Amino acid sequence: MSEPVTIWHNPRCMKSRGALTLLEERGVTPQIRRYLDDAPSRAELEQMLTLLGTDDPLAITRTGEALFRELGLKGADRDTLLDALAEHPKLIERPIVIRGAHAVVARPPELAVDLLD
């Protein structure tokens, strides 16, 4: 594979572990970014949305997370959501798999494999 693969990974998440396993079973050794320990900047989040082909931060937001409710983010505007994601990486959906100029939120994990084709 010519383009490197990166996974924004949370090893405590079953879906994230599943996506990583599927990639490895296909001979892909992705760069692993533990985004909870190495939080993406707002600029990186903006870039991720571009790679995902959307402008909506809700595409990468864990809206079911208690913190989402605690911060009163339901109905929040784009800037507020991006600021919250940058400040609280726990709110970022996982896993996100990146290859070249494309990315997928790998839920279900099999979506990570689709990115390889």
CATH homologous superfamily heading: Glutaredoxin
Work out the radius of gyration.
14 Å
Largest sheet strand order: 2-1-3-4
CATH topology: Glutaredoxin
How many structural domains can be distinguished in the coordinates? 1
Weakly predicted, low-confidence segments: none
Q: Shape from CA axes?
A: globular
Approximately how much helix is present in the residues? Answer: 25-40%
Q: Helix count?
A: 5
Q: Based on DSSP secondary structure assignment, what is the total number of beta strands?
A: 4
Structural class: alpha+beta
Verbal overview:
- There is one protein chain.
- This protein has 117 residues and is α+β, with helices and mostly antiparallel strands.
- The protein has helices at residues 14-25, 42-52, 66-70, 78-87, 111-114, and strands spanning 5-8, 31-33, 96-99, 102-105.
- A hairpin with a 2-residue loop joins strand 3 and strand 4.
- 25% of the residues are buried.
Summary tags:
117 residues; 5 helices; alpha+beta; four-stranded mixed beta sheet; 13% strand
How are the secondary structure elements laid out?
Layout lengths: L4 E4 L5 H12 L5 E3 L8 H11 L13 H5 L7 H10 L8 E4 L2 E4 L5 H4 L3
Parallel strand pairs: 1-2
Antiparallel strand pairs: 1-3, 3-4
